[in-house]
Prior knowledge:
Blueprint: E1 5-10, H1 14-25, E2 30-36, H2 40-47, E3 56-58, H3 61-66, E4 73-76, H4 83-93, E5 96-99, H5 107-120, E6 123-126, H6 134-145, E7 151-160, H7 162-170, H8 183-186, H9 189-199, E8 203-211, H10 265-274, E9 291-298, E10 303-309, E11 313-321, E12 324-329, H11 330-334, E13 340-344, E14 350-352, H12 369-375, H13 377-381, E15 390-392, H14 394-408
Parallel strand pairs: 1-2, 1-4, 2-3, 4-5, 5-6, 6-15, 7-10
Antiparallel strand pairs: 7-11, 8-9, 9-10, 11-12, 12-13, 13-14
Helix pairs in contact: 1-12, 4-5, 5-14, 9-14
Amino acid sequence: MSDPLSIAILGCGSRGRTYSQIAASFGDRYRLTAAADPVAVRREFVAALAPAGSVRTFDSADALFAAGKLADVLVVATQDAQHFGHAMAALEAGYDVLLEKPAAESLERCEELDRRAREVGRRIALGFVLRYTPFYSTVKSVVDSGRLGRVISIRSHEGVEPYHQAHSFVRGHWRSAKGSTPMIVAKCSHDADLLCWLGGAAAASISSYGNRSWFRAENAPAGAPERCTDGCPAAKDCLYDAHRYLGDKRRWLRMVLDGSEEAEDETILGFLRTSPWGRCVYRCDNDVVDHQVLACELENGITATHTMTAFDCGRTLEIYGTKAALKGGTPYQEAGSPELWLRHHLDGRVEPVEILKPSDDGYAGHGGGDHGIVDAFDRLFRGPSALPPGLDGLAGHRLAFLAEESRVAKGEPMRPNRISTS
């Protein structure tokens, strides 16, 4: 039996803690060796998942890298603007990397990461957890089986969910493209990756449209103050009232307030009075879009579209082939249809497609993808099926970044200079 794959965590927030918990659940297969985060309680949480004294802790990325290479794989789960610098430092230190998406804040820096990883012979896998869900794994197997015939076109759709949009992309860390990345990259890089991954090719030409239509000052209710906690006359009927963090939306606080699960209501109210998450959604400094559509042609001739909207919930996918069409997603299931099904062109027969459900182990985040990607670590980073050196998933990032360039240019087509199907 080979030695356990050793894993270090840089950034022990929500994503870093999730990955480390899952890795620890695999027993002897993986070994946690280091945790770095400026917040002591976060890095100590990770350290407590392993035998006492076996995880070295650091209060900064600089301190972690100064200690030399401490693991086979470094999970980089820091804030978006830090990804490029931390990933570059990890490559120089000799790590393979699991890098939370987006890889960097610009396409040029993504390309630079790919070049450097190839030069030093290291692998960077992006946190595209949807690839590893039972749903999309099943979709991929159906496409690859030939049951659809030749794939002609793909349509995908993501409803972000209104309160999620408000929490993350109006009030939250990803509200400004200047401080993070454009919405189509920050939220829909999963979907851009899926179009290239399922289509089997990179994009050759991309056009996109979208804007910020609703979360603007002119749409604020009459008399709405700067903060929900200042006493808003429209609070009772406002979908985005921050006081919902005390009730049905409390789970969102886990991402931004340490100890929120045990916090008293007054503690949370104090947080809302001073933090970005207590602001009126119509009076924030957000600049990312709340709806966008992209259309592209892949290098192999498949056409594909993706729609992102704040005003729906859940993902749907439709793939049209010469023999059959494949359709699925949670909205279909909620409407009473199978979650994934085929319609055969020859006789019109509808055939449900069975999906392997994620195990009920507490790690079904992202439809089982969080568990699935950690389960794949040893396949991604060692052995005959390991990834080749470079940035895996670069094609999807190219698609998303170029879609934003097209949107800013009012739909002008964009064409990549280099092509990659990774």
